[in-house]
Amino acid sequence: MTANTEEKVYRLDAIKWLLVVAIVAAGVVGNSHFSAESILYRALGLLVLAAVAVFVALQTAKGTAIADVVRGALVELRKVVWPSRQETNQTTLIVLAVVFVMAIILWLLDTLFGFIASNIIG
């Protein structure tokens, strides 16, 4: 790609991002303007405008890069070995037990230090 072509692509990207901002602004203003309409219709309109804005944003260089990152994250997410229900329950019970024991220890220390401080102060 030549420098002149890259410059045109960047210029077009700026125009596309301005279009995305205009679409979002139209959604905000339209939602306020049509506040008397049903929330369902306003929500559907905002969803359509959001879909159009995302589609336009994905046509830019940065939008394509973000889409590639999301695709890569989804691939890595499929590789994760998730714990079983039993492992999750056991880990949760261990955490609750440790929290309970630490709460008792801190309560005992607080009581001890309070007793010592009250004896020193008088």
Helix content: over 70%
Strand content: under 5%
The ordered H/E elements are HHHH
Radius of gyration: 29 Å
How would you sum up the major sheet?
none
Total count of strands: 0
What is the count of helical runs? 4
The overall pLDDT, averaged over residues, is 91
Instruction: Measure the end-to-end span.
Output: 84 Å
Shape: elongated
Low-confidence stretches: none
How does the helix and strand content classify structurally?
mainly alpha
Pick out its properties.
mainly alpha; single chain; 122 residues
Describe the structure in your own words:
The protein is mainly alpha-helical. 88% of the residues lie in helices and 0% in strands. The chain has four helices and no strands. The longest helix is centred in the last third of the chain and has 37 residues. The mean pLDDT is 91.
Brief overview:
With 122 residues, the protein is mainly alpha-helical. It contains 4 helices and no strands.
Layout of secondary structure:
Elements lengths: L2 H31 L5 H20 L2 H19 L5 H37 L1
